Amino acid sequence: MPFQPLTVAAVERLTRDAVAVIFEDAPGFDFVQGQYLTLRRDFDGTEIRRSYSICAAPGEPLRVGIKRVEGGAFSTWAQNLAPGDTVEAMPPMGRFHSAIAPDAERHYLLVAAGSGITPILSIARTVLEREPRSRVTLLYANRAVNTIMFQTELDDLKSRFLARLAIVHILKQDAQDIPLFTGRIDAAKLDALFDSWVQVDTVDEAFICGPEGLMETVRERLGAHGLPKDRIHVELFAAAQPGRLPQRPRDAAEAKPTVATIRIDGAAHEITMERDQSLLDAALENAIDAPYACRAGVCSTCMCRVVEGEVEMVQNHALEDYEVERGYVLGCQSYPVSARVVIEYDTGH
Ligand SMILES: Cc1cc2nc3c(=O)[nH]c(=O)nc-3n(C[C@H](O)[C@H](O)[C@H](O)COP(=O)(O)OP(=O)(O)OC[C@H]3O[C@@H](n4cnc5c(N)ncnc54)[C@H](O)[C@@H]3O)c2cc1C
């Protein structure tokens, strides 16, 4: 299926590590709840394709929610999208939905973890708006309050559909009034939730989205509590998708350590570092306040200059050729090659 350019209409920051990207209308991009877009970009000759679930209800502007993955190429790059940018996309695909029946009176159980909320939000809104007699129970797992994507939107949805929407937030780290709602979701916690908070025998359809291990546990416990398999729908955010950028192999035995002098803020720090360690990691490990942001070679926050010695920069999506010629490198992507290096940061002090 052909890719077409989509123009970014707006970008909303959802959390420190996640954005919602809204696209301008495009012919052929009608969608149903729970579907996803496949986006494509060329990173210095390597084509990367990544799928992102649509987090809007049908009829609304096309919108995806992208959470940054540590060291991830596309999700890191996407954090800096801005209105007017274009992204190549395939028309919506996916079967993570069931047909809407306006007269139906069903109970939907939706389970999401982290960025798995994106198709789940689309399903929740569609069901609540288009099946006025159906109700929704949402179990949403996150590490902490500040990593919850779409929190305001979920609160608004709850106020609008008070009697038909129940939301249970499960937070791995942050304590809550009800102890059951804190900690890792495992089989025991699910059993306790299904015994006291969600009556599985009233559930007509379950939709689950998040990391593989958790999804399997939820599916298995729902089955054990009597929900037939054909009513359990799972969307997996598979990690292996076309295109990967090279990352430096971690071979600790590769060579002897390097002695690095790091000049920053008017001080020179001498440290010993392994050759499979990035300049940035070595600086941070030695309590040197080196600047950084994306850690994936996409922004230029960690830019520094090699004054002496040799380093290898494995990825660069930020520096211009003339900067590289003048010795500038990205600290997060650069590894020492010579036994001694001198690195200088221009932090404006
Ligand atoms: C149907 C579907 C829907 C999805 N919907 C969403 C969504 O709505 N929102 C969302 O945020 N995500 C979603 N995803 C996940 C998304 O498609 C990406 O997988 C995710 O954003 C990570 O992509 P990336 O390019 O940033 O990371 P990648 O560059 O693929 O990296 C992933 C991991 O692999 C490591 N890695 C990368 N290259 C190498 C290498 N050469 N050697 C060793 N390790 C390496 C990275 O450090 C990182 O930990 C969905 C996935 C699918 C399949």
Automatic annotation (TrEMBL):
Short name of one Pfam family: FAD_binding_6
Location of the 2Fe-2S ferredoxin-type domain: 258-349
Protein name: Ring-1,2-phenylacetyl-CoA epoxidase subunit PaaE
InterPro entries according to UniProt: 2Fe-2S_ferredoxin-like_sf (IPR036010), 2Fe-2S_ferredoxin-type (IPR001041), 2Fe2S_fd_BS (IPR006058), Beta-grasp_dom_sf (IPR012675), Cbr1-like_FAD-bd_dom (IPR008333), FAD-bd_FR_type (IPR017927), Flavoprot_Pyr_Nucl_cyt_Rdtase (IPR001709), FNR_nucleotide-bd (IPR039261)
Keyword hit for Oxidoreductase: yes
Keyword set, alphabetical order: 2Fe-2S, FAD, Flavoprotein, Iron, Iron-sulfur, Metal-binding, Oxidoreductase
Molecular function GO terms recorded: 2 iron, 2 sulfur cluster binding; flavin adenine dinucleotide binding; metal ion binding; oxidoreductase activity
Stretches assigned to the FAD-binding FR-type domain: 1-99
Named cofactor requirement(s): [2Fe-2S] cluster; FAD
Keyword Oxidoreductase on entry: yes
Highest taxon of source: Bacteria
